[in-house]
Model the fold of this input.
Amino acid sequence: MRPFPAAGYLRWRRRQTAVSVYAILDKSSYRRLFARLSAGPPQRPHPGTPKMTATVARPRVANLVGSLTRRQLGTGAAAAAASLALGGSAARAAGSVNVMAYDGFIPPTFKRQFESDSGVEVKIRPAASQAPELSLMIAERPQPQSDIATVAGHRLHQFVEADLLAPIDVSRLKNWGKLNPIYAKAEWLTVTGEIMGAPLAIGSERLIANVDKAGRPDSWGAMFDPKFKGRTTYSIEDFLQCVMAYQGADGTFMAYLNKPDGAQKAVNAARDLLIKEKSQVAKYYETGSELQQLMVSEEVVLAQGYAGTLASLILAGKPIELIVPKEGSFAFAYTFALVKGSPNPDNAYRLLDALLGYPGISAALTRSSGYTTTFADAGEGLSEAERKAYGLPPDALERLKFFRYEGQSLSSALIDKAVEEVKAA
Done:
């Protein structure tokens, strides 16, 4: 099973690992270093950020059932379609393209086909998470070693301010139109009027329910229902923003950019409710495996978590569903961004356009990464069980608010303080 995203990257607040310099710093030192590197206030890495390593476990479906295999691509209409999508043999180009990509963000079938048809070698560079990626890219200037970097949508401003990214010339991507306009035209994708990333995958926060024991609640308020006392679990820092939404406040903090007192009042109200209802919680979970065990044992029947966290259980037929409550929830997008001054910019465009146009890319990317995709045909080619495990229905999408860089800057200190107050209460 893919570990809960929170355990797959460096949470500087309380779960440091040994993969980067951040692992040896305390919170105050981290804040000072991060501010110095990013020329801005420290950001809370988003809970959905996966660890960028070739060894991260994740839910898989054997042999990418339903997607095009290499053998299928080598024959008949499938081969012709794939060849056209990847540029065909006439478009062969020498050299390589270096991609800083999360595990599974470049499906193996696509990688092999692209390399075969284009002559361009795809070199994947693992890194730990967004913050170490930022510091690595800064350290490599003025001779960057990557052509494409994986950047969360609400962190694009930060990378641009550090002068690390180049705008995307959409006219060079004939397959840009295959993205869902909701994402392709999103405000968080642009900085000073220029598109800075190609959105690929979406992570969203959900209410997780054992439908046999808890039904299908449509509100975050179910987490405070006395009949579920002692049978809920959540991550405080993540759930606190959901509680803000439940109370009618703005968990993205975009409504409070010039209203710090309003932001503090909203956070305090959510904190106070979590303290008041502390007896509802069986425990505050730390990792995906812990959440999985709590749900499998039925010690808890309701939880807050990220879509994909319990995918393997849903695929195995467990009575678990992922719900976007009526009050709404939150999401973030991962993009492929072009590195400024990269060594192979033309090959970067070749790869990006080929990825957007690859037949069956939406299903293949979902299966290999564990995330919902940003393509207009997201969900096509997936089984019913896979759609339950990874899907995001249109009506649910309408209830999601996407995190923005500006809001995350404001939320960091306020939420961290509130989390400690809830723990200590």
Summary: The domain at 204-330+404-424 is CATH 3.40.190.10 (D-Maltodextrin-Binding Protein; domain 2).
